[in-house]
Amino acid sequence: MSWISVLILLTISASLRPPNVSAQQYQDLSDKTLMKTFGKEFNVKISVVKNLLDGQEYLKINTVQPDKTYLGLGFGQSMTNAQIMIFIADGTQSNAAEYFSPRATRPTKQDNQNLASTFKQNGTHVEFTAYRKFKPDDVNDKTLSLNSLVNMIYAFRQFESSESVTLKYHGGDNRGIFKIFVDLSGGISDASGEGYSEDDSFDFYVYHGWLMWVSWGLFGLIQLASNRYLKMYWKVNMWVHRLSGSIIWILTLVFGFIAVSKADWEVVNSLHTIIGFIVTITVTLIVLGGVFTRSMMNRLRWKTHLILKIKFGHRMFGLALITLSQFSILTGGLKYSTWAEYMKPLPITHISIFFLTSFVIEIIHQRYKTQEQPFRVPDEIMTMEEFKSKIQNGSQYVLLDDLVLDVSKYMSNHPGGRFVMEYNVGRDISKYFYGGYILENSGGLSPHYHSNVARKIVNSLIIARIDQKPFQFMARIVEKSDVNSTTATFTFRIQKQAGNLIQFQLPASNDISTFGKHFLVKSIANPRVKRQYTLASCMNKHIYEQYVKNIEKFTSNQDIQGIDESFINQSSYNDNADIYLTIKNYDTRSGLSRLIHQQKDVFEIKALMGKGLDVQRQGTHLAFVAGTGILVFMDLVAFILRQNLGLLQGSDNQILDQKNFKFVLYASFPSPEDSIGLELLQGLQKITQMQELKNFELILRFSNEFMSERWNAQFIERQVEIFTQNKQIKKIWVCGPPMMNEVFDRTFEEISQQYDLDRSIVEIL
Ligand SMILES: *[C@@H]1O[C@H](CO)[C@@H](O)[C@H](O)[C@H]1NC(C)=O
C-alpha cells in the first residue's frame, strides 16, 4: 500500500467522521443567548460560538427534552424546502441530525451533515449539545450570518414508553415558527412572538386527503348508484348525478391543483402524484362528457345507436376514473398514513369497503332486474276516445298493455334517448317494451327487453287504464293447424284453476273496436319473454274454411251459406274454453314462438289489450303489411267480406259506411306459398270487383318474385299522393318487420307537412 492511498483513505475516513464536538475548542462570542421553551418540557438554549480550530462561527444549540421525544428546529417559514435539525431523544439510542424536508411530508436525512452533537441522558431526560456551522461547505445548505434575522420553525412529539421514536407527524398543535436576530457580536435575541406557520402544508394534505375521499370515495359511489342503480327514481337520480358530479369536479380541481402546485408541479414524484394528476386533469373531461351525453340524448333523432355509443363512452370513462381515483386514495392514504397513527388502517379499509360495496350492490341490482314487479292497477279509467282527444290536445301519453302512461316528464330520462319516447307519443309501446320490436334498426341494434327497473318506472308513469280490465288466465295448446310452412293457428285451451271460474269472452266478430287488439302471452317456463299476438278469429281453421267455401260459391253464382261463428260468439267462456291465435315460428333459441310451436308449455295470457286498429266508419284506410302483419287486419277483411257477401244483419251494415268507407290493403308476402289468408284477401278483392263496390282494394306483392316493387320512400310517397287527392285518408297502418316499419315511419315523418298529413293518423303497429 502506497503512501498516497493511505493518505486518501485517511482523508476519506476523516471526512466521513462527524465534525469534532469537543466543547473546549468552542468559545462563546457573546453572553446574549436565547432561551426558549416549546410545549412545557422542551427547553432550548441558542447561542453563537467560535471554533478555535477553523476560526468559523457556529450556532450552538442546547436542548433538554424528555426521553422518548423528538424536537425539530428548522430554518425557514414552513416545512417546504426547509433544513431541519432533529433531536431524537431515545435513551442511549438518542441522536441528532440534519434533515431536509422538500414538502410537508416526512423529511429525509441529509447526506452531508453540518451538525455535530453530543448527548447526555439520565433515564428521564436527554440533553443535547450541538454545533452547526454558519457557512456550510455545501452551497445548498442554509447559510447564516451575523447581523441578520433568521426565520425558524419548530415541531415536537412525545411517544409512549412502549413506542419507538420515529418521525411520525407531530400534529397541528405541536409546531410553530419563531424568529431570531443574530447581532454583530454574536448575541442572539428573540425577534418574534410565537405564532403558527400559515403555510404548513401537512394540514392541507390532511384536508386534501379527506376531501378527495369524500369526492371519489363517497360521491364516486353516488355517481355509480345514481347512474346505474337508482334509475327507478328518475325524477331525482339525474339531479343527484349532476350535483354529485359537480361536487367531485370542483373539489378535485381545487384541491388537486393546489396539491400539484404545492409539489412545485413536480408530477412525476410518486405513484400518488401521477395518478392524482391524471384524475385532476381528466375530471373536467368527464363532466363535459356528461353534459354532452345528456344533450345528445335529448337532441339526436333516429340515432339511438349513436346515443348508446356515447353513453357507453361516458360510462366507461366514468368507471375508469372512479377506479383510478380509488387507487389515488389508496396511494395518497398510504403515503400520509406514516405521519399519523389513526390514518394507517384507513386506505386499505376504504378500498375494501368501496369495492365490496360496489360488488354487493351490483349483485343485488342484477337480482332485482330479473324479478318482475307487477304493474300498478290504477283506479282511473280512460276510454280510447278520451285517450285520443288528450293526444290531440297535446298530452304526451303512451299505451302499454291496457295502461295509459304520461311520459311528458320522463322523456329526457329515458335511457335510450328522448326521441324514441317522444316519437311514440299516442302510440302503443308494448311491442317495444317487451323487446319484440325496435323503432330503429340502424347501427346493429337489437330489440331491448326492458327489465324490472323499467317496470318500476312504468309504475310511476301510470295515470289510467283503458276501458275494462283485461282478463288473465292460463292456457295450454291442444291443437295446431298450419297456415304455411312457418305459421300455424293454435288452439289454446283455458286451464281450470282451483276455485276460480274464468269468464272470458272472445269479442263478437262484428265488434270492430276489437280489431287489431292483442293477447299478451308469456310462457311459464321462461316468463321474461312476452309477446303480443293479434286476435284474428277468422284464422280459426273451421271459420276460415267456411269463408273460403262461401267465396267459391259466390264467385260461381251458387247460393252462399253464411258463416257459423258459434264457437267464437259464445256468450261467455268458462274453463276449458278455447282461444285461437295464429303465430309464426321465428325459431330463436329463447323465443316464445318456438315454445308455442313445440306445444310443450303452459302459457299465461292476458287479453285483450292495446289500441287496436281504431277503424273509422268513413274515409280511406291504408294498410301496408308484410308477412304475419296481415293477421292484424284479417278480421277487418273478414268483416268487409261478410258485408260484401251480404251476410251482415240489419244495423251491422251501418258499422262501416256503405259509400264512404274504403280499405286499401298493400300486402306483401315472400311468395304465394308463404302467404297468410291469401284466399280471403283475393276472394274479397274478386267479390268487391264483381259487385262494383269501392270499399276494398288489394295491392298484392310477392317479394321473392322477380321485379317486385320496392317499398321505399318514393313508393310510399306515391301512394300517399294518390290517396290524399280526395283528402280523406283517415288511417295509415304499417305492420311489417322492423326495417320496413322504420322506412315507413321515417318517410311519413318527412312527407307529413308536404301532404298535410296529420301524424296521429299514422300507426306503426
Ligand atoms: C434528569 O435530568 C433532568 C434535566 O437535567 C432533570 O430534570 C431530572 O430530574 C433528571 N432525572 C433524574 C432521574 O435524575
From TrEMBL:
GO terms for cellular component: membrane. It is a multi-pass membrane protein. CDD domains: Cyt_b561_FRRS1_like, DOMON_DOH. GO terms for molecular function: heme binding; metal ion binding; transmembrane monodehydroascorbate reductase activity. Keywords: Heme, Iron, Membrane, Metal-binding, Signal, Transmembrane, Transmembrane helix. Residues 1-23 form the signal peptide. InterPro entries: CYB561D1/2, Cyt_B5-like_heme/steroid-bd, Cyt_B5-like_heme/steroid_sf, Cyt_B5_heme-BS, DOH_DOMON, DOMON_domain, FNR_nucleotide-bd. PANTHER family: DOMON RELATED DOMAIN-CONTAINING PROTEIN, OS05G0565100 PROTEIN. This is Cytochrome b5-like heme steroid binding domain containing protein. The gene is Contig15301.g16297.
